[in-house]
Structures are given as C-alpha cells and as structure tokens.
C-alpha cells in the first residue's frame, strides 16, 4: 500500500470538523482505554473487539455487538507484536473476565478488512444520499463554491489531478497558500469503483449540506481509524473536538 502523500491526514480531518463546531457548545464523548497501550481516547478513535457465541475474538467496528468488549488503539504492527508475544491473549483474558477465548491467527488482517469495509459502506451511503460527488469537473466546481467538506483521492490517483482539485478545494475554503490537501485513501480506483458500482472512481468530494449533512464526519471518523491502524498516524475524529468524558473499559 502506498503511503498517503498528505502528511497531516488526521489534523486535516480534525480541522474540518472542529471548524463546523466552533459556534456550538463542546460535546462530551465517551472515552475507552486501549487494553494494550493503556492509553485512553474517544471510542470513535478505537476499534472494539467482541467475542462470538463460540468464543472467537472478532472485530466490531460499529461497536454494536452485545456483551462485553475490549478496545484497541494501537497500529497493526504493534498488535501483531502483541499477538506474537502473548500479550494480547493476556489482555483479552482480563478484559473478558477469564472467558474461554479463541484468537484467530489473522485477527490483524480481519480488523483492517473490517475498517476498509466500513469506510466503503459509508462512502456508498453518502453516494446514495446524494452527498458524495464524483467526477473531477463537478468536484472542482463544488469545491470552489465551498461546498466540499472532505476531499478524497484514490491511492493511485495521478498527482497532477490531485493538485488541481486540492487547489480548487483551498479556494472554496479560503485557505489559499495553506498547503491543505485532500486525503489520499489506502484504496485504489479499482476497489472504489467496485464498491460504488461506478467506473473509474478516482476522486470524491463529500458535501456538507443536504439530506446527509453528517456524512463527512462519519467518513472522516472511520478513515482516521483506518489510517492510524495501517500507517501509524494518530487518530483524530469529530468526537475528539468535544469535552473530555469519563473513561470506561466498555459499556
């Protein structure tokens, strides 16, 4: 996978969402503790693990599976190291109160696959609601009008095409000279095209208005988690802009 060319993906996302909330009161967001690092973070920045009826540990990216859960906020290399040294097994045993557990050998890959699927699902929902804008010309037009909240590029997008849309986006955001860039996804055009049912999806713009005004926040949240997990960048989501909240190991 190619390293995203924009170096401040998480801060870009945070700046976008924080800017939309400066006029309102700070929002409290529940925090969770990573069972491996011991650090706390908003639950939207972590990945929840749950156990199936037969005791298999599985990723629960939507955090909706019943029963107790365990939360991880480390990048994939750290998780794989913890699995190899047996640290994950011990941490899960404590989190699940000694329940019989089965940790699949490919858990690290399952987590990445689950986050990728969740990202693609949210992009698909945004497209169906009319919030996702495709086509370079249309994106550029809407970006210059300040109607694009989140600008996304496929991993194999051409640099010149990205630069043109980045510039249009900065104009619409009144951020010329800032160097702000759209987010380069850890997904190529083939994966995006298949997931969205369209040909040659290279660039995408997520609008901040209309029937699904919160789409940009939801996409940015899971994208930050995926990029942190795969690339080691610190997660930063919409929820992190809110006030601190009590820390719980699980709900």
The CATH class designation of the largest domain is Alpha Beta
CATH architecture title of the largest domain:
2-Layer Sandwich
Low-confidence stretches: 1-26, 232-249
- Mass-distribution shape: elongated
CATH topology of the largest domain: 60s Ribosomal Protein L30, Chain: A
The amount of helix comes to 25-40%
Describe the structure.
With 251 residues, the chain is α+β, with helices and mostly antiparallel strands. It has 2 domains: 9-26 and 113-241, 2-Layer Sandwich (60s Ribosomal Protein L30, Chain: A), CATH 3.30.1330; 31-110, 2-Layer Sandwich (Hypothetical Cytosolic Protein, Chain: A), CATH 3.30.1230.10. The protein is built from 8 helices and 10 strands. It has helices at residues 9-19, 76-85, 87-95, 107-128, 136-144, 159-172, 189-196, 215-231; strands at residues 31-33, 40-42, 47-51, 57-59, 70-72, 132-134, 148-153, 183-184, 203-207, 247-248. Helix 6 links the parallel strand 7 and strand 8. Mean pLDDT is 83; it is low at 1-26 and 232-249.
Supply database-style keywords.
disordered C terminus; alpha+beta; 14% strand; Ribosomal_eL30-like_sf; 4-stranded mixed β-sheet; 251 residues; 40% helix; disordered N terminus; DUF448 domain-containing protein
SSE layout:
Blueprint: H1 9-19, E1 31-33, E2 40-42, E3 47-51, E4 57-59, E5 70-72, H2 76-85, H3 87-95, H4 107-128, E6 132-134, H5 136-144, E7 148-153, H6 159-172, E8 183-184, H7 189-196, E9 203-207, H8 215-231, E10 247-248
Parallel strand pairs: 1-10, 7-8
Antiparallel strand pairs: 1-2, 3-4, 3-5, 6-9, 7-9
